[in-house]
Write a structure and sequence with these properties.
single chain; Aminopeptidase; eight-stranded mixed sheet
Length: about 775
């Protein structure tokens, strides 16, 4: 029945459009610039409806003056899309279309766009009417999560990763604060950062779904959050971003309006119904015309039923207040009060608001054609985004039209934050196939770059990118040498038609170990591989001596400088250093009786690597629930055989926390610490290998528990295992795994080490993991 109804609707649309195609065009007007309609509609039939026409028509409006453009912006649902010189796209009703023609406006119908829009709306509306809408998906658009599912996903993400994520209620929607109506929603923000590393830290603020009907935006923001968490301790760049920066995401700015759009309404605004509009299909405030900076200075409407209605006053809406209050609580105020005051070159923080559609990257100002005082730097970072997503990069009044009361003008105007609007894709109700094959792969790298640039958004984007950073070998014995390689590229910009970015030759490259250059890392120069820095793209290299590096994982940060002195954003790689043999357990040396030990100086040292004497497979939510099923006690000592997990796991999920992965607990380490010491770090040593590597990227993940296995730290993981036994040390002498430890936490009844075996790709469940020794060393002072 659903398919039949959908086909019927499409046939009606085609019939209406065919009727339009038979209409005749007027002759050219006698006077240049005179406005004449290009197409007549059929007569309005009884009841005020256009015969055979859909309720929403996509049209092209040509304007002849700034005043006419302002009229279109105030009165109609004008999209963030250009259809050529002096032309904008809009969605109108049949009645509005007749009004445009009656007024003598130059208007044409986009027949293909109208047909697609009608089909998209019908798909959701029919499924919703049949009670087919589920919490986890929008009917016909399974790739997009609803408000409830977005909240559920990100709440669970934070609960599972408390050291890296916090999910916070930051305010309420209009429905929630208004008595007598629907229940409404809380508005939430997700904060992503490694809370074990203190700040202050640069901020990247990302918001989505301020316009309800723009399906792609909230989902892209949600997937960006999921990607960052999944890659922590796996991908070096994701790891250092969360260690040194903060990423804040408001995924559903307008949840009340979004629920209407999820049911198939072409809803843009919030659901505020007390401003004088009595039409239930038209009321609400356009939240992206309601911000307090330059409110009501053009490009909006004062009529409550219009799509760009700006609200009765600046920041009148609770959703606007939520965003502005949150922004003011995290973004640095770095710009003076005058329109011509520039933020300093050293300003930090980045803001992006996700919209759809039109494939644009827009930067301030939106309210005036006068360039923003940081216009050159805003262009440069914007052209980096354009390189990744292929979108046109411009400011609104230049490539579209002026708007006021927008969120990106607010964050730039109020704080000097480098601020942007991304117009994603080609439709409001974008097909899932296009979302996954085009929008995600084009825009995810742009979001990562935005995060990387958050420390110096007005400086680093002018410098070269560090690409293909690698070390060879990736795992090296302590005392050996490794080769660090990278490509420095100063050419990665694209405005896609709106100007070219200056390009310079590379002048220098450098690296630091275990901290960026701006966080205490000591810079060491890299050499041009061809012997001279004389091109805009250069391969660089350096030799690293690992003698001074402790066993374990190290992060190597690489950055490049161009001939103008601009340093680009960082890229990183992990280097694993292994010990040359078992670390001896320190022996006790008694203090001579005639040399008193100061009582106010605690002991400094470590326990040496300790072995467990008990183990247990996790038997629920753990793959095939048998852990290291073969000889698990062999992991108690170095040498003498291995514990084996044969045919590990039940699918190819690559997450350390997946329930499809085999898990095994080791405990009774008999940790004895001197009285009064503070635990500074914990190291877990795994001597391990795998039967085959292939495309499976086999790794071992480790979590620690301090309460007998009830609660666990965030997981750390080895690099890809090899078929030869190697030593991997997770954690470090100054790495407390995200918490403060007490002596009681190491009691045999409390302390647990959980090993999770992970492989991905084809035949992942055929991998056999071998563990020779699982040892723990506790460092203290």
């Amino acid at each position: 029945m659903l398919r039949f109804r959908l086909v019927l609707i499409i046939l009606l649309v085609m019939a209406g459009l065919s009727q339009l195609g038979r209409l005749y065009a007027q002759d050219a007007p006698d006077e240049p610039g005179a406005m004449e309609p290009r197409v007549f509609l059929p007569a309005i039939v009884g009841g005020g409806q256009m015969e055979g026409l859909p309720s929403h028509i996509l049209v092209h409006l040509t304007y002849h003056s700034h005043e006419e453009l302002e009229y279109f912006l105030a009165e109609f649902d004008v999209l963030e899309a250009s259809c050529g010189a002096s032309c904008v796209e809009a969605v109108v009703s049949p009645e509005q279309y007749q009004r445009l023609l009656t007024e003598g406006r130059l208007v044409t119908i986009d027949e293909a766009g109208t047909a697609q829009l009608t089909t998209d709306l019908a798909l959701v509306q029919q499924a919703s009417a049949a009670d087919a809408q589920a919490i986890a998906a929008i009917p016909g658009y399974a790739c997009y999560r609803t408000v409830e599912e977005t909240y559920s996903t990100l709440s669970a993400l934070a609960a599972a990763n408390p050291q890296l994520a916090a999910w916070t209620d930051i305010g309420d929607s209009w429905e929630k604060v208004t008595p007598g109506g629907a229940a409404g929603y809380d508005v939430f923000a997700l904060k992503l950062t490694n809370s074990a590393i203190p700040g202050p830290k640069p901020k990247f603020l990302l918001i989505a779904a301020i316009h309800a009907r723009e399906y792609t935006t909230a989902e892209l923001a949600t997937r960006f959050a999921e990607d960052l968490i999944a890659k922590y301790n796996v991908d070096p760049d994701a790891t250092w971003l969360l260690d040194y920066f903060e990423i804040h995401i408001i995924p559903q700015v307008n949840p009340d309006g979004r629920k209407k759009a999820e049911a198939g309404a072409l809803w843009r605004k919030n659901t505020d119904n007390d401003d004088g509009c009595n039409n239930s299909s038209s009321w609400g405030v356009d939240l992206n015309r309601n911000s307090s900076f330059k409110w009501n200075t053009g490009g909006s409407s004062g009529v409550a039923c219009n799509e760009t209605y700006r609200g009765p006053s600046a920041a009148s809406e609770p959703e606007t207040q939520v965003v502005q209050n949150y922004a003011s609580s995290i973004l640095l105020d770095q710009r003076g009060p005058n329109d011509t005051d520039a933020a300093p070159a050293t300003a930090q923080d980045v803001f992006i608001t996700l919209h759809s559609y039109s494939q644009l990257v827009l930067y301030p100002w939106g309210w005036t054609t006068t360039p923003a005082p940081n216009s050159t730097q805003l262009q440069t970072l914007g052209r980096k985004f354009g390189y990744f997503n292929g979108y046109q990069v411009c400011n609104g009044p230049t490539c579209l039209y002026a708007t006021s009361g927008t969120t990106d003008d607010y964050t730039y105007g109020q704080f000097g934050t480098a601020s942007y609007t991304f117009e994603l894709g080609t439709a409001f109700f974008q097909a899932c196939s296009f979302f996954t094959s085009d929008i995600i792969p084009k825009n995810m790298p742009a979001l990562y770059y935005a995060a990387k640039a958050a420390r110096r958004p007005y400086q680093n984007p002018a410098g070269p990118d560090a690409l293909n950073v690698s070390v060879s070998p990736a795992t090296a014995a302590q005392g050996s040498q490794v080769t660090l390689s990278a490509t420095l590229d100063d050419t990665r910009y694209n405005s896609n038609g709106w100007g070219a970015e200056p390009v310079q030759n590379i002048a220098a490259g450098r690296y630091t170990i275990d901290a960026p250059s701006w966080a205490g890392g000591a810079p060491i120069a890299m050499n041009a591989s061809d012997g001279a820095f004389n091109a805009s793209v250069e391969n660089v290299s350096a030799v690293i001596d690992t003698s001074a590096l402790a066993p374990g994982r190290h992060t190597i940060f690489v950055e490049g400088q161009d001939a103008n002195g601009n340093w680009g954003v960082l890229s990183a790689v992990f280097l694993w250093v292994t010990s040359n043999g078992p670390t001896p357990t320190p022996t006790f040396t008694p203090t001579p009786t005639n040399t008193p030990t100061p009582t106010n100086t605690p002991a400094v040292g470590n326990t040496g690597f300790l072995s467990p004497s008990a183990n247990a497979a996790q038997t629920s939510s753990a793959g095939d629930n048998n852990g290291f099923q073969t000889n698990p006690t062999n992991a108690y000592a170095d040498g003498g055989g291995v514990a084996q997990d044969v045919n590990s796991g039940t699918n190819n999920n690559s997450s350390c926390t997946a329930t499809s992965k085999d898990k095994h607990l080791f405990y009774n380490y008999n940790v004895n610490l001197p009285g009064g010491v503070t635990v500074t770090g914990i190291e877990v040593r795994l001597d391990a290998f795998v039967d085959a590597v292939g495309s499976n990227a086999p790794r071992m993940c480790v979590q620690l528990s301090w309460d007998g296995g009830v609660t666990w730290t965030a997981a750390k993981q080895t690099p890809t295992l090899t078929t030869s036994e190697a030593t991997y040390v997770l954690g470090g002498a100054a790495d407390a795994w995200g918490r403060s430890w007490t002596t009681a936490n190491f009691a045999n009844t409390s302390f647990r080490v959980r090993v999770i075996n992970v492989a991905s790709g084809t035949n992942a469940t055929a991998r056999d993991f071998s563990l020779d020794w699982i040892a723990v060393r506790v460092n203290y002072q």
